[in-house]
């Protein structure tokens, strides 16, 4: 009887596969309100990641990623320099951001995000799943990670919004 249960567990459970993030076909993007009326879109050019994914159940068993913060691009060199400076990301002291999978419930994925050595749990939505390709959407409050740009515009509004929308478009390359 024990052998029967073992076989059910062994053959009824899908182990999934291990993937490396294909950085040439993946994106790490963010959007944040600027001057109340416009939205700044940016991305990071250098990042890496690994994940384990079960195609049948659409479940992660692991996911880790690292972003090189100094590779930020918002299509404005002046803004990029500020974002990298000690007044915002302080890339010399905190050169990377990290993301780590914690758990998943259907399309809700709980991740551990570390920025400036501050780690918080965030919820991301899993969408656009096709084989080892997927998109994760989430939001953070930049102040939770001490990204506290406090400059005000002339009418008193905040120049940079507090809510940052994050999009990770991932294509995986099978590693096993």
What tags apply to this protein structure?
single chain, 176 residues, mainly beta, Lipocalin, 8-stranded antiparallel barrel, 2 helices, 54% strand, globular, disordered N terminus
Describe the structure.
With 176 residues, this protein is mostly beta strands. The chain is built from two helices and eleven strands, in the order αββββββαβββββ. It has one domain: Lipid/polyisoprenoid-binding, YceI-like (Lipocalin, Beta Barrel). It has an eight-stranded antiparallel barrel with strand order 1-4-5-7-8-9-10-11. The chain is globular, with a radius of gyration of 19 Å. The N terminus is likely disordered.
Question: What's this, in brief?
Answer:
The protein has two helices and eleven strands, in the order αββββββαβββββ. The protein has 176 residues and is mainly beta. The chain has a single domain, classed as Lipocalin.
Strand order of the largest sheet: 1-4-5-7-8-9-10-11
Largest sheet: 8 strands, antiparallel, barrel
Considering the protein shown, what is the CATH homologous superfamily?
Lipid/polyisoprenoid-binding, YceI-like
Q: Which regions contain 5 or more consecutive residues with pLDDT less than 50?
A: 1-14
Q: Summarize the helix and strand pattern as letters.
A: HEEEEEEHEEEEE
Anisotropy-based shape: globular
Our measurement of the CA-to-CA distance between the termini, rounded to an integer number of angstroms, reads: 33 Å
- The CATH topology comes to Lipocalin
Strand content: over 45%
| CATH architecture group name | Beta Barrel
Total beta strand runs: 11
Radius of gyration: 19 Å
